[in-house]
Each structure stands twice: as structure tokens, then as C-alpha cells.
């Protein structure tokens, strides 16, 4: 039997809740975008009227270092992009989301991670 891994997220969207998704799936290297998983595209296809807002957060690698359980006080910079809606094609949607995230990441003009 096939289990729908996105069922809970879909239920939340159906009742109007805000859902936060980290499209990379897991934590990679600090302050470096990794390739996105396609789950966000599947949700956008199921709920085409729900906007997807790309959000880039710089500084999480210092605020919550990988493998640590406690938050470290540190400033984060957050960049919020324009909403993206389902465009009818998974590959085009993911490419557009990736491009928008890269554009947001470039807005900060941050030095290399140290």
C-alpha cells in the first residue's frame, strides 16, 4: 500500500495553515544551497492556488550549527521573494524556485562562509 508522505501537509494547507518547507530535504553545508527535492512541486501541483514564497535565511549555520541541540544567539538575515504558483510543469517549477532562491541569496552579498 502506498503511503502519501504529503498528506499531513495537504491537510494543513486545506484548513489555511501556513506551512514551512525546507526544499533541500536535510541540512547540508552551512550557507550553501543544495539541490532541492521535488516535494514542494508536488504540493504546488496539488494546491495550485496556494502561493509558494521563496525565503532565503543567511546565518542559520551559526545560529543552530549542524549536530547541536541548543540555539546560539546570532543574527540571521532573511530575504523573502515574490510568490510563485504552479506553472504546470515540475521541472520548470523547480528551476524557477531554484533561480529565485539563488537571486535572494545573492541579494545579501555576504562574504564566504567562515
Mean pLDDT: 86
Characterize the main sheet: 2 strands, antiparallel
Order of helices and strands: HHEHEH
Our count of helices gives 4
CA-CA gap between termini? 47 Å
Uncertain ranges = none
Q: In what range is the share of β-strand residues?
A: 5-15%
Helix content: 25-40%
Q: Give the C-alpha Rg.
A: 15 Å
Structural class: mainly alpha
Report the principal-axis shape.
Answer: globular
Strand order of the largest sheet: 1-2
Give the strand tally. Answer: 2
Can you describe what's shown?
Helix content is 33%, strand content 7%. The protein is mainly alpha-helical. It has a domain at 36-109. It has a two-stranded antiparallel sheet. The relative contact order is 0.19. The mean pLDDT is 86.
Question: How are the SSEs ordered, and which strands pair?
Answer:
Layout: H1 7-14, H2 39-46, E1 55-58, H3 60-63, E2 77-80, H4 90-107
Amino acid at each position: 500500500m502506498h503511503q502519501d508522505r504529503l498528506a499531513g501537509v495537504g491537510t494543513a494547507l486545506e484548513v489555511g495553515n501556513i506551512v514551512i518547507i525546507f526544499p533541500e530535504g536535510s541540512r547540508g553545508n552551512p550557507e550553501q544551497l543544495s539541490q532541492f527535492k521535488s516535494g514542494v512541486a508536488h504540493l504546488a501541483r496539488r494546491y495550485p492556488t496556494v502561493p509558494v514564497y521563496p525565503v532565503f535565511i543567511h546565518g542559520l549555520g551559526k545560529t543552530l550549527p549542524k549536530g547541536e541541540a541548543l540555539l546560539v544567539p546570532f543574527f540571521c538575515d532573511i530575504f523573502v521573494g515574490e510568490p510563485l504558483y504552479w506553472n504546470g510543469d515540475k521541472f520548470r517549477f523547480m528551476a524557477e524556485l531554484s533561480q529565485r532562491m539563488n537571486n535572494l541569496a545573492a541579494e545579501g552579498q555576504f562574504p564566504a562562509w567562515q
